[in-house]
Amino acid sequence: MAKKKAEDKKKNYLDNIPYIPEDRQWEVKGKIVYVTQINSGFYNKIAQKLFKTPKTSQIKLEGLGSFIWQQIDGKRSIYDIGILVADKYADKAEPLYERLSQYMKTLENLGFIKFKEN
What we know:
Layout: H1 2-10, E1 18-19, E2 26-29, E3 32-38, H2 42-51, E4 56-60, H3 63-71, H4 78-89, H5 96-109, E5 114-115
Antiparallel strand pairs: 1-5, 2-3, 3-4
Helix pairs in contact: 3-4, 4-5
């Protein structure tokens, strides 16, 4: 077990390759990406019945987030995506890899993306 943890520490987060699961619905309107979020679970079901809340929500990604989303192809690593972001946004994206890493972690926590096993 300790050996596994030591190996995990050696991996660089930027080497991870994100991908969008096939069942994740999204669309581009103009240059903005809208990701469909299904509102499921016990509390959402109650809210849908009592308050007529929608079964799905459209999550709008801002400009930089929309650009990043469209670079996620299951082949590019986070590092590779960072290079594309730097080319397009230059200083506006700084501190680049800190922000990009946090954004990827947020997308993963929301279930919007997953990472390939390395």
